[in-house]
User: Fold these one by one.
Assistant:
Number 1:
Amino acid sequence: MTAPDPRDGAGLGPLAPHVPALLRGTAAYHVPQPPRTVAKLDANELPYGLPGDLRAELGRALAEVALERYPDAAARRLRAVVVRQLSAPGPAAPRAPITGDQIVFGNGSDELIAMLCSAFSAPRGGRPASVLAPSPSFVYYRLAAIARGVEPIEVPLTPAFELDEAAMLRAIDEQRPRVVFLALPNNPTGTLWRMSFATELAARHRDVVIVSDEAYLAYSGATALPVLADHPNLVIMRTLSKIGMAGLRVGYTVSSPAIAALLEKLRPPYNLSALDQCAAEFVLERASAWCAARAAEVVAERSRLAAALAARGFEVFPSEANLLLIRTTGATALWHRLADVGVMVRLFDAGPLAGCLRVTVGTPADNAALLAAL
Ligand SMILES: Cc1ncc(COP(=O)(O)O)c(C=O)c1O
């Protein structure tokens, strides 16, 4: 007997017709597990772990967490830290003060993306609601929409993976999505599109939620936060995952208090564990300078690695994130050869990403291992 194909609902028997067709035809998010890893360059993580003294201090803080109690559902202490951090003076500071009622925490930004899809899913005239994102972009926008019966609309990027602004405007006018997700910079391409396009969209389409997904802020420095107060339909989304805390699952949105109050209705009350809250608070308070310094090292490494890959004949796309998208012939075979020697990168060899591999910028040693393997 052949194994049922989990993509088409085979094996579910009479349950299969109850599953939306789009969901049946979708593959689950898959993370390959190699037998050994020499360099883990496949998940856009920060390649550095906290230094020993901070780790020990964090351990002491975590030991004090009352595990017998539910976590603080409002994450009050963490909220205060985030508000303080967002309000810090500088070029990225908001022009109007941020208050705690503008923040919603998610179990990673993945959960916030799902909450945004659910919150604005009211059907329009018999048609399901839709959300729109450029393509290729972060795959979870599409998965989260499909899982909630919301139609994902994808607007192709140009061949250079730039945003096709005219096509985006046309698609929004014609399809009237409820939410537009813009990864700024984009994953998996690394490209940073014109930031002001997000705010122009927000001004032009007051009935559409525009999400500025700033997961890679530490590597791009680009944020729409300064003008948030001008746009009641703009949502800024951030995560701790890319600044060294992917093992915690903590992300947050900053938006108008009205959108935040709506998202709060969807948020599972204890979505951030007490350990998540304590560790996130510690990292933001005590380790943010360390995180920023490591991110700056990755940015410097990014240029060196891009030059070295280009010198080896790869097409390297410009990146403002901690990743490089590269194109070559025989990408799939190359991915297997790299995996065999424990160098993990992400393979995308299909559609507009034919021939593409995504390489997370690692430590100098990780990057040297990649270059040696190539
Ligand atoms: C653009 C973008 N947004 C959001 C996420 C999800 O981050 P989190 O780990 O917070 O769920 C990712 C993860 O790779 C991403 O690339």
Number 2:
Amino acid sequence: MSLSKTQSAYERASKVLPFGVTSNFRFWGEGKTPIAARGEGAYLYDLDGNRYIDYRLAFGPVILGHAYEAVNRRVSEAIGDGTLFAMTHMWEIRAAERIQRMCPGVDRVRFANSGTEATMHAIRLARTYTGREKVLKFEGHYHGMHDYLLFSTAGIKVEAAGPPDAPVPAPQTPGIPRVISDLVLTAPWNDFEYLEKVVTRHGEELAAIIFEPIMGNAASIGPLPGWLEHIRALCDRYGIVMIMDEVKTGFRVAPGGAQELFGVQADLVTYAKALGNGFPIAALGGKQEIMDHIGPGRMLQGGTYTGNAVGTAAADAVLELLEDGEVLRSINARGERLSGGLSEILTRHGIAHHINGPGSMFGLVLTEGDPPRNIREWLQTDQALYTRIAMELIKRGAMPDPDGREPWFLCYALSDQDVDDTLTAFEEAVKAATG
Ligand SMILES: Cc1ncc(COP(=O)(O)O)c(C=O)c1O
């Protein structure tokens, strides 16, 4: 596999972009950072023309496939009439109506441009609605780049995050004012007792509990039975706004997202990623009683580009295809076949492992122990072996993220043949990584 064009383009990139990238998460190391040329369906091509079956899908958004014709056509139709008006337009209304129809308990919707913006507005709305300031988040959960929640995410430094039975919010980056950490409480995911204890103590100060229903930034670790119901009950008991961050799960695990999959309804929900199949679009939605606090003379929400015709036309096309559930059922079924096949190969090679999450975004964890229930337990798993296998697989033309925290994402364009080819390459990759 030649990488000469990629390497010289990377040198050029690093002279103008810090580390040659526009997101720290895209830096794989000097001489190892890939440069994309194009995507088509389930495939990604690098600058040297190498083809990969893409299981990163841009960290999840590409639910149908790269350059998906029906979505591109709808966007082209929209942009012929202009993209931005500082006025409500019909694409926006159509996309919002579809979200309202598909997502349980979403009475009203406002659009944003990224998941970061959507969770930032959700937090402000919860504070407006409750008149309280503190927010509880879970260790290992990621909600975007704004300062309010960038603590103890999947890149958690355990030394800075306190003991597991008395966690403290550890900032993930320099530059966050120290006072903001006074407004954040952290808790381990799936720990019923600790959550009950912390909410009993701080419930009256908490505006919101925010969480990823499936840990889309930590190997798709799911909720234990009864866990989401436990969060719901505590929110109800103390008048706390329950915010389900469906930026990764929304329009991927089921047409109505994790709310539909698990049958638990939040007060506010955030969406992005699969909503646009790669076009930039996000949304915040929820109960009318809460959403009605947004408005003139009330809480501010908006932005020059919010609800632009490009993103909302893309969402209109994507949701039209996802609404009846057939597309997602097919993606999930293919994902189950792929993860089952990976599991069989690992078992044959004597590598202890667990598969987490639904087929459309499953996590693969290598460990002799029990399945991890939270990020601290995931940190005990064999990350190095996972990365070695993933890198060998990439050399053989199938590309999951080399970081085992990132799930394997599947798109509708992926064929049964692609799954078979991935399994063949995976067997070779396991041999190379362990031989
Ligand atoms: C669960 C979750 N919330 C929020 C975000 C932030 O979204 P964005 O990168 O669009 O700002 C992400 C991004 O990966 C995410 O996974």
